[in-house]
# Entry
Amino acid sequence: MDMAIDTPSPAPPPTPPAPSAAAGRQTRAAEAVRLEHQLVRVPLESLRATVRSNHRLAEKEIAAVLSSASAAPAESSAAAVDHLTSLVSRLHGLKRKMEEGARVEELQVQRCRARLDRLATASTGDDAEWEDIRLKRILVDYMLRMSYYDSATKLAETSGIQELVDIDVFLDAKRVIDSLQNNEVAPALAWCAENKSRLKKSKSKLEFLLRLQEFVEFVKAKNCIQAIAYARKHLAPWGNMHMKELQRVTATLVFRSNTNCTPYKILFEQERWDYLVDIFKQDFCKLYGMTLEPLLNIYLQAGLTALKTPFCTEGSCPREDPLSLEGFRKLAEPLPFSKQHHSKLVCYITKELMDTENPPRVLPNGYVYSEKALQEMSKKNDGKITCPRTGDVCDFSECVRAFIS
Amino acid sequence: MEIDSLREGFDRVAEKRSLSSAKALEAVDQIVNEVEQAIVKLQMMNTDSTGNVDHPSILAELKSKLNEMAPLNQLEGSQKELNGALSKYLKVLEKSFNPDISKAYRNVDFEVHTVNNIIANHFYRQGLFDLGDMFARECGELGGTSLKLPFQEMYAILEAMKARNLEPALSWAAKNHDQLLQNGSMLEFKLYQLQFVEILSKGSRGEGKDEALLYARTHLVPFAAVHKEEFQKLMACLLWVGRLDQSPYSELMSSAHWEKLAEELTHQFCSLLGQSRESPLSVAVSAGFQGLPTLLKLTQVMAAKKQEWQVMKQLPVPIDIGPEFQYHSVFVCPVLREQSSDENPPMRMPCGHVVSKQSIMKLSKSSSRPFKCPYCPSEAVASHCKQLHF
# Structure
């Protein structure tokens, strides 16, 4: 930024003209909207999943009805009537289910629209309400990922942003997570079956790991015969892809769950279930196009990186800077410092940026304040200036300009 | 970003979806229709003893009709169109948005307990006390510093002000009289002024005047010396008691004064608590939204150059965030292109231009000779350059 160079200045290379503050704010706001992928993607994925399962249901039932219709008993017409009547009631049942499915789809379509509408009203840079709702959305996302479901629901309800957060999606995941924590694999396997083709595409290992766990549970219960039968049926198909792990796990057959042999010991440990929960969460996020980390962590990291300067740890760090607080400093510790290519001066008194409109002025003692602050002070004190940091007193007329580029 | 083109893409999806769903229901209806017709025919045959048709042929006819209808193909067709629209729209999304914002994420563990404490206090700061309590309970973060009590006091004062009750605000201001004065805040006087105007505008002519006069004597007089102008204006209002709205001072009754004062009170309250005005969590996240696009571009460039993003100590480029996030003065020497430090502070040459101490040492060959300012034709000697403190 060029500041008050009112003398001709041949040196150094001219910096490109800084865009006006308002324009800068607008580009930043537009760029910020481009980060909201998850907001529009998740409801779309829900819609896709519902459409797929509704379609599958209709397909299956209709196929069944068709084959049943062609196999109607031909011995007597009464038997045929009975058979066909039962088919009609089956079809009515299907129709009810399909109508219900269509209603769910419509709700999800509405939700997708609500998200687009929200983005259409995106702030152009200075809209406290928009930013407040945005933060609330991010907090709900954080709570859902951390399994603080009650708080998430309450925050969404009290701020009326249910259409903008994905509580139901996460509640679906919760069922699976809870069951895994209770050492049950059935709901997780059902989830894998529902999303089979897409999990395969993303090379998910979840189902394999779940199968391994079930196998290990048989071994734990000293049920070797059943374990082998289970492995033949459910583990063998994974042989091509994960032979190493398959070998290692099947070797547990000869060890017992109280083994001290490390590579096998860990397979028996309770922590394996936590590991499965983690893997499930990862696959779940991928499937819905979510980031693996909570959005809050991502934005906090970026924000703290942008704000982190070596001055933040000084005692004089103003309290408006989040990094003046212990908690934020701790979070920022492993992050890099930001960098400045151009001078940016903040008036110690007014905390405002000093620029051509409000240029810096130097007191005889070398301390620098904005012209606005000094003018105000001199007006109140008959032209006298008291340096707030040293207590030195001088005349306003003694304060000289400084040119900073 | 063009929301309209996204909307168009999604409208296509929605349209194909309702079409596909209608088609599927229609197919079911058609099957029902055919089967029911067959049933009627079968029943007719029972009552009609001519025996022209036998039931196997009716069943065969039903079968061939159903085959001809091929409901599964109909289903498949409309579903395919829907899937086409969906994947097209997905591609538009990928293009319009940044599909993976976690690329610039540094793999460090954010201490959960620190983050939770920050969130709980954020809710307390916003006056969402029930939510803060619930959150603290749910994440087991009941210890730690809590802003609950002080902010409860603040919100109680603000609530009372909303109900046009200034008592709690006044007693708080009186209690913190010295500190407010030190901050140069006129809050206390402004509160008394507001109360005074309230009495004037509500009271009837007779009693109102007495009450207002008494109030002015006890509460406003102590401020008369400092706020002379305002004081005179307020006393003149006494002439219009009961009809202040028709006076030249009707502006004093504007409800904007209440809002402004509530804001000022919030500001002073936070300041006396040693807290920032804005919630630090809001500030950090807003800065994140502004800074992340640059960080994402940076990681892309660095990945291409095979540089390590995860361990870098300082960013190689500046991040463009709004001036509202600038809390510290940063001086970058225009000659050395380096940030100033205690060892290399900014110095002002007699012409007014500022460069770093090291630059001056270089230009003056270690203060041995006069040198020309790099910005203007004037000459300087090192001993006449003065160190600056921002």
Remarks:
- Chain A touches chain B through 137 residues (CB under 8 Å).
- The CA atoms of residues 5 and 403 of chain A lie 6 Å apart.
